[in-house]
Design a protein that fits this description.
- With 219 residues, the chain is of the alpha/beta class.
- It has one domain.
- It is built from nine helices and five strands; from the N terminus they run βαααβααβααβαβα.
- It has helices at residues 10-18, 23-30, 35-56, 72-93, 112-127, 141-158, 164-175, 186-200, 207-218, and strands spanning 4-8, 66-71, 133-136, 180-182, 203-205.
- The chain has a five-stranded parallel sheet with strand order 3-2-1-4-5.
- β4 (180-182), α8 (186-200) and β5 (203-205) form a beta-alpha-beta unit.
- α6 (141-158) packs across α7.
- It is globular.
Length: 219
């Protein structure tokens, strides 16, 4: 069986931190949000959650030639994703109409950033403890001039909806010869998967598709 290299989008990590990492339940409890709300929100995370859990709970004999990576940039962006979820909880709690969610960011209680940071760091102890998932640094400046920037520019200009942070994560995956990039962004898969596979041999997959691939690699 050939070696496979996997990279994760930030949203996949956010979903796991909120789900199995336990942060969503803590947030709901602290803001006095009902269990029904928790169930609705968790339903959005469960496929990403299950995918990451299958990797964390495996050992190196399960997928002996597969390597799983998350870039340092993705971890930095993770807190922005968590902040968005907290905003959603507060807007729901304050009964702000859905049509106004983008234009009415709530004020997160002062001091909450320390709570979120501390609890997220605790989830990292689980996420990286068995060394099944490895943190990899983003490209240094010397490498950027002749490798990183040309690929970055090509992806950014050929895909009209792609964002800066998505491009950064994809280029890091490409330069590290990744086979798979797992993301819960359906629009990203629809927009760029064909060009990523054709030009860079990088396959974009949803967490559900990633789980199926791993299951087949176990058989």
């Amino acid at each position: 069986m050939e070696k496979r290299i996997w990279f994760f989008d930030t949203n996949v990590l956010v979903n796991w931190v909120l789900g199995s990492g336990g942060l969503l339940k803590q947030l709901c409890d602290s803001f006095d949000i009902s269990d029904n709300f928790f169930d609705i929100f968790y339903n959005r995370y469960k496929l990403s959650d299950a995918f990451v859990e299958s990797i964390i709970n495996s050992d190196k004999s399960t997928f002996p030639k597969d390597r799983f990576f998350v870039s340092l940039f993705a971890l930095n962006e993770l807190f922005s994703g968590i902040r968005s979820e907290i905003n959603s909880i507060l807007l729901f709690k304050d009964r702000v109409p859905l049509s106004r969610w983008k234009d009415s960011p709530p004020t997160i209680p002062e001091g909450y950033e320390k709570f979120v940071y501390d609890e997220t760091m605790k989830t990292f102890d689980v996420l990286f403890d068995k060394e099944r998932i490895t943190i990899i640094e983003d490209q240094d400046l010397k490498r950027a001039w002749d490798q990183y920037l040309p690929i970055y520019c090509e992806i950014l200009f050929l895909n009209k909806h792609i964002k800066t942070q998505d491009t950064t994560l994809l280029v890091t995956a490409i330069l590290n010869k990744a086979d798979f990039f797992i993301t819960s962004d359906k629009w990203l898969i629809e927009d760029v998967s064909k060009s990523m596979l054709t030009k860079f041999n990088l396959s974009l997959k949803s967490p559900e598709e990633g789980s199926e691939i791993l299951k087949n690699r176990m058989s």
